[in-house]
Amino acid sequence: xxxxxxxxxxxxxxxxxxxxxxxxxxxxxxxxxxxxxxxxxxxxxxxxxxxxxxxxxxxxxxxxxxxxxxxxxxxxxxxxxxxxxxxxxxxxxxxxxxxxxxxxxxxxxxxxxxxxxxxxxxxxxxxxxxxxxxxxxxxxxxxxxxxxxxxxxxxxxxxxxxxxxxxxxxxxxxxxxxxxxxxxxxxxxxxxxxxxxxxxxxxxxxxxxxxxxxxxxxxxxxxxxxxxxxxxxxxxxxxxxxxxxxxxxxxxxxxxxxxxxxxxxxxxxxxxxxxxxxxxxxxxxxxxxxxxxxxxxxxxxxxxxxxxxxxxxxxxxxxxxxxxxxxxxxxxxxxxxxxxxxxxxxxxxxxxxxxxxxxxxxxxxxxxxxxxxxxxxxxxxxxxxxxxxxxxxxxxxxxxxxxxxxxxxxxxxxxxxxxxxxxxxxxxxxxxxxxxxxxxxxxxxxxxxxxxxxxxxxxxxxxxxxxxxxxxxxxxxxxxxxxxxxxxxxxxxxxxxxxxxxxxxxxxxxxxxxxxxxxxxxxxxxxxxxxxxxxxxxxxxxxxxxxx
Length: 548
Prior knowledge:
With 548 residues, the chain is an alpha/beta fold. The chain contains 21 helices and 15 strands. The longest helix is centred in the first third of the chain and has 29 residues, at 2-30.
């Protein structure tokens, strides 16, 4: 079957190469004039196909010589034609294409301006916008950075405000990982390894790494699949590793584990994950190294010590809000705080997840971000802990809005995937990615040219931060950390809009500790009273709906 698919991809080129000499010989022997234009046309297709295989700028053309041009031809006609052929009834499809086009332009370093104004309805419910100043500023240095590392951190890290989010080797091809990491190295920003461990391609790129430790403990596991302190210390003390991220959940499928079938495990994947060949690789839904909030704080302290004092934090998509408050109460009880928390939104991407999880499980990023920021403020801990945000953060506007609602920096998977050529073919789980990104097929991944795509990654980062600087200056500010909720407006319905402070209210510092009689704080205080540092199980549950 695989050979049939391979033949189908190259069939037009093979046919052109075979027919060219046949038609040429037929013309010479017969002298029939009608053969000449056919010969010239087929020969031209053959030359185009050979060029497609040899060029390195377009992975689609290398994987689909000749027929890949149809995609670019349709895209070049115009938005009306593209809409007729490609858009479905989902509102998100045209938005995704518009953003993807923006990323392509910034990654390639071409003009990213557009005519005819906005592509969204400014009167639709949910539309939001940035307020600007009559006295804008010019921001010349747009290498915006944030220092990550709390009072217990011995090796703080000065991170860019826009980094590559978690994507594992195995989910992505070797060339994709190498291109992303080389781009991070060239641009001076960080690359999250994802839960699949640190591969040889992460190391070869030389870029700063955020080592993600998930429930499978890949790269730091014992033979029985449990956490190995000794193996972790070897990984974490590598100078290329700048931070440690414990993954509690990811936005696209929070509360869901995973399995990599034995048939898909290559020697390189086994090497990176520290797993045997020939056995299904299981990622449990929950961690085995801790089961209570206090134990989790102890785990954070343990990883910080084993890493030599590097920043240690965790990533989660908010689910039961009380459970996050349990973690915050454990921070207060133990005196151990993470150096950072990354808030992932349910809108985050993944290569494969059940439809119900993709659409309906987990809190969206903006609401989750505001909840985490407010809870830490209410507990008096916000000054000790940095917050990252992830979940469909692609444009400079996305970064600015997230920082206004409490983020110190942002991560993106989708944006950097677009930068290396992702076309959202939605075949990530099939091993047949046409761009050579989400595949382990060596023939497909070779189409992704690492030098070209790594340059695009660095260029996309630089141009996006330049655009962020323009937004900062337009608002009359000097740094994106100065964005606050009131800099943004949110349309509630067709004829009304609200200030960002009304939609995402900024509650008083320490209110969870001091208490309040204010009615709007009672929901927070009630949830806080049910949270415990000792267990994730509620101390006082609401009444059973079937109780008399």
